[in-house]
From TrEMBL:
Protein name per Swiss-Prot or TrEMBL: Pyrroloquinoline-quinone synthase
Gene3D superfamilies, A to Z: Heme oxygenase-like
Keyword Nucleotidyltransferase among UniProt keywords: no
Keyword Oxidoreductase tagged: yes
Lineage of source species: Bacteria, Pseudomonadati, Pseudomonadota, Alphaproteobacteria, Hyphomicrobiales
Pfam families referenced in this protein's UniProt entry, alphabetically: TENA_THI-4
Annotated pathway: Cofactor biosynthesis; pyrroloquinoline quinone biosynthesis
Transmembrane segments: none
Family: Belongs to the PqqC family.
Length: 251
């Protein structure tokens, strides 16, 4: 249950539906999370930054797979031509010169071993469950819901403009080169969210479908929030790191 459960009860115009979707992001996007605020205030230790990069890699690595699941279900060549750009952005043309490789560069730039990061064997159990839930959602829900779940990209440029300047200013071991992943993301996220939003506006043409896409965006915000909850629990002041998960070196 969420505060948006009945938002489309009486039906919404396309403009009203977009407004509700943006309200979801304003209320629930993970730039509101305390862990993000700690990051941008300069309060995280290097070990906490490493844990964030490692666990986020697990999410980054599943994005092309969830996009392939969506792509597989479309019978529209025009849709497929546009949506496959997302996979190309993350995998590059050889698997290791796209967004995933740039995220790996971020993780190794923070001092993590590349093979360990790629194996994902030390990510938090909660991260594994959250990422798996997202992939399952995009594979098993309707195509409209799967597309709508990607609309967190509407808000991605906001969190990047908060995160990158703060990281460069407040962590002396972070350089612009390490953060190369973020150079292209605002423009790509805007391109992709514009396309997804137009698709949702066209196809969410009943109150039931409109509520489904609102719920899809709530779900995706919950996935991203849960990942930061897990990091806060495991690597916060009390330290509740599960067996087998990454343990930062004591400096």
């Amino acid at each position: 249950m969420s505060e948006f459960d009945d938002a489309a009860r009486n039906g919404l115009s396309p403009r009203e539906l977009e407004a509700v979707l943006r309200e979801v992001g304003a209320a629930r996007y993970h730039n509101k999370h305390p862990f993000h605020h700690q990051m941008t205030s300069g309060a995280l230790t290097k070990g906490q930054m490493q844990a964030w990069a490692l666990n986020r890699y697990s999410y980054q690595s599943v994005i092309p797979r969830k996009d392939a699941a969506i792509l597989m279900r479309s019978e529209d060549p025009e849709f497929r031509a546009h949506w496959r750009k997302r996979i190309e952005d993350h995998d590059g043309d050889d698997g290791w010169n796209g967004g995933i490789a740039r995220w790996l560069k971020l993780a190794t730039g923070l001092g993590l071993d590349a093979d360990m990061v790629k194996s994902e064997r030390k990510v938090l159990p909660a991260t594994r469950f959250a990422v798996g839930a997202y992939l399952s959602y995009c594979s098993n829900k309707t195509m409209l819901e799967a597309v709508a779940s990607s609309l967190t990209e509407l808000f991605s440029p906001v969190i990047i403009t908060e995160r990158v300047p703060a990281m460069l200013a407040k962590y002396d071991y972070i350089t612009k080169d390490i953060l190369a992943y973020f150079d292209k993301r605002p423009a790509l996220a805007s391109r992709d969210s514009d396309f997804a939003l137009a698709y949702v506006m066209e196809h969410a043409n009943t109150p039931e479908k409109q509520q489904a896409v609102i719920n899809a965006l709530v779900f995706k915000c919950d996935v991203l929030w849960a990942m930061l909850d897990a990091l806060s629990h495991a690597y916060g002041q009390k330290g509740n790191i599960p067996p087998g998960a990454f343990v930062p070196e004591v400096s």
